[in-house]
Amino acid sequence: MKKKLKSLSLLGVIALLSLGSSSVYAESVTEATYGKSINPSGIEIFAEAKYPGAGTYFDPYSTTREKSTDFSMEVTNTGAGTTSVTRTVSIRKFANVSVGGETELNVMAQKVKASLEVNAGVESNKSVSITWSIPAKSVYTIKAGSVVVKTSGYIERANNSGVVVSRTYNSGNWTTSDFSDSIFVRKL
Predict the structure, then answer these.
(1) Could you tell me the keywords of this UniProt record (predicted)?
(2) How do residues 170-182 score in pLDDT, each as one tens digit?
(3) What's 37's DSSP letter?
(4) Contact (Cβ atoms closer than 8 angstroms) between residue 145 and residue 128
(5) What does the alpha-carbon distance between residue 167 and residue 158 come to, in Å, rounded to a whole number?
(6) Burial (0-12, 13-18, 19+ Cβ within 10 Å), 28
(7) Which end of the chain is more exposed for a tag (fewer CB within 10 A), N or C?
(8) d(CA 25, CA 28)
(9) What is the per-residue burial (b if ≥16 Cβ within 10 Å, else e) of 155-175?
(10) b/e map of 64-82 (b: 16 or more CB within 10 Å)?
């Protein structure tokens, strides 16, 4: 009788152990397949590779180029032939980015194909001598300044597989080149 009880209790322990391991196994499978991923940092995670590899990239939403006038003057030529007018003017140069610094601004400039004249956060003035030709018996407005690029979009950081692991909205504006214009006003 003692021998029979021992074998029954041994069978019971084996049965309990096997049930216990099944439930542990089932529980871990359930957790792995059912678990919801919660990211407390608020970073958006994307599954598909968007870029060729790790790095910082810019995905522009909008980009514009416009002229910013630093010098304007009306010129009258009362003579019978074309005349030249030369002026030394001061043109403002700047570069701004709303989030980040030099790295983000360089990535933006490279993506929208617009060179930077100064570093991020810098503002300076450049002295330039410009000559305009004014036709006979006419009035013109002469102008000079900088071409300004304005862009906004997302700075995206990708892992080694090219998968975007974070994106941040950003905007920037900077001067990219000088310009000079002469605009006809009227004949004399």
Answers:
(1) Signal
(2) 999 999 999 999 9
(3) P
(4) no
(5) 9
(6) exposed
(7) N
(8) 5
(9) bbebeeeeebebbeebbbbbb
(10) eeeeeebbeeebebeeeee
